[in-house]
Specification:
The complex is a heterodimer of chains A (307) and B (469). Chain A is an alpha/beta fold. Chain A is built from 9 helices and 14 strands. Chain A has helices at residues 43-50, 93-104, 108-117, 133-145, 163-178, 214-222, 233-242, 262-272, 286-294; strands spanning 5-14, 17-27, 32-36, 58-63, 66-67, 78-81, 151-155, 182-187, 199-204, 207-213, 225-229, 246-249, 254-258, 278-281. Chain A has a 6-stranded mixed sheet with strand order 6-7-8-3-9-10, sandwiched between helices. Chain A has a 4-stranded antiparallel sheet with strand order 2-1-4-5, covered by helices on one side. In chain A, strands 12-13-11-14 form a 4-stranded antiparallel sheet, covered by helices on one side. In chain A, helix 2 packs across helix 3 (108-117), helix 3 packs across helix 4 (133-145) and helix 6 packs across helix 9 (286-294). Chain B has 469 residues and is an alpha+beta fold. In chain B, the strands form 4 sheets. Chain B has a 7-stranded antiparallel sheet, with no helix packed on it. In chain B, helix 6 (307-343) packs antiparallel against helix 7. The radius of gyration of chain B is 30 Å and the shape is elongated. Classes of the chains: A alpha/beta (307), B alpha+beta (469). The interface between A and B is medium-sized, with 35 and 29 residues.
């Protein structure tokens, strides 16, 4: 089976609320695709539709080229973690995985393997109700890995994890991609995906905003700006403006220069004997790039407060 | 099919791995057994202190010495009761309970040879007109019947011990009480016993020793205590008599006998089920709603997108477990209740000893387990439709428990119709005696509950398929 998720012209409404509208994207094998958008943007809805839990109003979602509901052994095609809390609190961790394994016709041995893999072997006989959020995330990941599926989907997997857990999960996701699996990870914080995701699908209010690689997105948001730190701000501004640059004061002793490459800025300032302590190419963070993209798409943004 | 087996195994793992379901099963068993034996030891009967026979009829007779034969035609039999009897009898006088043998036609139950209040042999079907013949040879009495007076058919032959050498022989007519029971309030009822009368015309009366002038009529009736019927009458001479009579000649072993106690011992042994079923309802509802409450339903439906299969597997696991637990509970309840009931007066002849392997007992005991299993599946369906525990529980309790409380308070009619139309109808499978308050036949009642269970499951599957999870 080919390891991919294809979403085509997906539309899903809940009563009068349009959750997803005309959404198309592809999750390719061998990389981690970040699925980003503010809370309420439609990420979980899209994932539920992919898993056949919710029926789309229009469009389609295919896993390995087939609708989820037609997969013969779904757990061996897609592993998903939607909600780590969705475990019966009275059931032992091992039993939770065991019933899933039975559903998929997997051997009991596989349950012990995945428990080992996520580091829960010691807690296998404890009831899930007593688990911390981090342990539940691990249990959810174990459930997703049961069928050794070529496609993996995680909805907000680092939510509530301690730093150690976050590092662990990032390594895990990178590892899955390197094994050639298609990995879709959703998050409402772009920063969480920095260094993890190769590809990004950004949505807001149910619509696609960007479908791009991480590198292209950062480059686009950075532009060719140079940050300059100088003691003689007004001198530098006039000299650089004469040289054809657009200059903006950003701070008491720093300027943002665009229209001139960094080498030219250094040359012009040296020629005129003006002092400067730092010249650097500006590089936007992924978070900034994302803020830029989704500024209009934040549905429940905090109101601006003037103090 | 292999996939269904996998889902089945998964659902079984779910079922056994949560403590609350295991507790529910245990509670159902313990409550059923405990309350059944409590209820059994709280009921008692004095049916065996009541008379064990009835000996009341209109008798036109004369003495017969030694062996002899009497023949007569019952030309007509009119009025009264389905068990109205008219025929020839030989009896040791008019004393209550004295030995007798009689060949007779009945209004609706054919020709019969009955003797000594305990044996009943059926002849051909049909009623008057019919020729009858009674022959005494020593202590042996033989009854014959004929439709034309020429071709005779032997109905049967009985030995009547203690029949004296000189016994009374003649014509008799009896017509039993019409028993009507009605409910007068919650848990209390009133039994009306209405006497009936029947009139038979006898002709072509013949016998080797008969003296046409020696006939006399006696109202055989209790000498102490009230009469059950009314005085009879006779009119005629020699070879033709019109006889009117009321009452019956019967006892344990004769079909027309109305025993003094009509308690359904089997049903009373299994009464605890009405409390145990609450745990079963909770179990069924929770097996569906806990999936929604905990969110496990999403994992379930991702693991098996064939949603109908999931619910079907749940029904099989739940129904199977509850059936087995119910079988243990009802068999134990029955066995434990028997000694307690015996101690409270439920003994032969009014209440014969019962064994688990008697047909009706087996039906009631296994049927009780089936009832609980079907009720569990019905609750599962409602749980899957409603998705919320409290709402589903209230709905099932309203349908199952409330009719049992409300019905008896309103009227017998309300009780009977609720017992036919609500899932409670399934409890009819415990009936082993047809009583005035029997709402529906055993298997038909279980059929009503099955319809509820299947209906709820089908609706639940349609809803589960059509809705977002």
């Amino acid at each position: 089976m080919d390891a991919s998720i294809e979403v085509r012209q997906l539309r899903k409404t809940y009563g009068p609320t349009v959750a997803v509208e005309g959404l198309s994207f592809t999750v390719a094998a061998g990389q981690v695709t970040g699925f980003v958008g503010p809370n309420g943007a439609g990420k979980s809805t899209t994932m539920r539709v992919i898993l056949g839990l919710d029926a789309p109003d229009a469009g389609s979602a295919l896993v390995g080229g087939r609708p989820y509901r037609t997969l013969p052994t779904p757990l061996c095609a897609v592993g998903a973690l939607l909600d780590a809390g969705a475990v019966h609190p009275g059931r032992r961790a091992r039993d939770h995985l065991l019933w899933l394994a039975h559903y998929a016709g997997l051997p009991t041995r596989r349950v012990d393997e995945v428990l080992e893999l996520v580091g829960l072997a010691g807690a296998a006989r404890r009831r899930a109700g007593g688990f911390s959020l981090g342990m539940r995330q691990r249990l959810g990941i174990a459930a997703a890995l049961l069928g050794d599926p070529p496609v993996l989907m995680f909805d907000e997997p680092v939510n509530g994890l301690d730093p150690e857990g976050i590092v662990w999960i990032r390594g895990l996701l990178r590892g899955f991609a390197e094994q050639g699996r298609a990995v879709l990870v959703s998050s409402h914080l772009m920063g969480e995906l920095e260094g993890t995701a190769d590809h990004l699908v950004v949505i807001g209010r149910g619509r696609l905003i960007a479908d791009t690689t991480v590198r292209d997105l950062v480059a686009a948001a950075s532009g060719d700006r140079v940050v300059l730190r100088t003691a003689d701000r007004s001198g530098a501004m006039s000299v650089l403006a004469n040289a054809g640059a657009t200059v903006a004061a950003t701070d008491r002793d720093s300027l943002t220069v665009s229209g001139l490459p960094a080498e030219r800025v250094v040359a012009v300032l040296t020629e005129r004997g003006l002092p400067f302590s730092e010249v650097s190419a500006h590089r936007a963070t992924l978070e900034e790039a994302y803020m830029e993209l989704t500024r209009d798409a934040v549905e429940f943004g905090a109101p601006e407060v003037h103090s | 099919m292999r996939e269904f087996g996998q889902v089945l195994r998964g659902e079984w793992t779910k079922f056994r791995s949560v403590r609350s379901t295991v507790w529910c099963v245990l509670a159902a068993v313990v409550l059923t057994v405990l309350l059944s034996s409590l209820a059994a030891s709280a009921t008692s009967t004095d049916a065996n202190t009541a008379p064990r026979f009835v000996d009341e009829f209109s008798f036109v007779h004369q003495p017969l010495t030694g062996d002899g034969t009497v023949t007569a035609r019952v030309a007509s039999l009119a009025g009264g009761h389905e068990w109205a009897k008219a025929g020839l009898m030989i009896k040791d006088g008019a004393a209550q309970g004295s030995p007798y043998a009689a060949v007779m036609v009945t209004a609706r139950h054919g020709v019969r040879l009955q003797s000594t209040f305990d044996t009943d042999v059926a002849g051909n079907a049909g009623t008057a007109p019919r020729w009858l013949r009674l022959t005494r040879t020593g202590s042996s009495v033989t009854g014959f019947e004929s439709t034309d007076g020429r071709t005779w058919h032997e109905v049967g032959r009985r030995d009547v011990d203690r029949l004296p050498r000189v016994a009374e022989v003649g014509l008799f007519v009896a017509s039993p009480l019409d028993v009507q029971t009605r409910k007068t309030g919650a848990g209390s009822n009133e039994t009306a016993m209405i006497p009936t009368r029947s009139t038979a015309v006898f002709d072509q009366i013949a016998g080797d020793q008969l003296d046409p002038d020696a006939w006399q009529r006696t109202d055989v009736a209790p000498t102490v205590g009230p009469r059950l019927g009314e005085p009879g009458d006779a009119d005629g001479t020699g070879q033709r008599f019109t006889v009117t009579g009321s009452g019956d000649v019967a006892g344990y072993g004769i079909e027309s006998w109305i025993p003094p106690g009509d308690d359904d011992m089997v049903r009373n042994s299994l009464g605890g089920v009405q409390v145990g079923l609450m745990a079963v309802i909770a179990l069924g509802v929770l097996f569906a709603t806990s999936e929604y409450k905990t969110g496990t339903i999403r994992a379930t439906l991702t693991a098996s997108p064939r949603r109908g299969r999931v619910l079907a597997a749940k029904a099989v696991v739940l129904g199977g477990v509850v059936f087995l637990a119910g079988l243990v509970a009802s068999a134990a309840a029955f066995v434990i209740a028997q000694p307690a009931m015996r101690a409270n007066g439920y003994t032969p002849p009014a209440y014969p000893h019962l064994s688990l392997v008697d047909g009706p007992v087996l039906r009631a005991v296994v049927g009780t387990a089936l009832f609980l299993a079907l009720l569990a599946v019905f609750s599962l369906g409602i749980g899957a439709i409603r998705r919320r525990t409290v709402g589903a529980l209230i709905l099932v309790v309203v349908l199952v428990v409330v009719p049992q409380i409300v019905g008896p308070v309103v009227s017998l009619n309300a009780e009977l119709w609720l017992g036919r139309l609500t899932p409670v109808a399934g409890l009819a499978i415990q009936q082993t005696r047809e009583r005035f308050d029997s709402a529906i036949a055993p298997w038909a009642g279980l059929g009503v509950l099955s319809a509820y269970a299947v209906g709820a499951m089908v609706f639940a599957i349609v809803r589960l398929r059509g809705r977002d999870a």
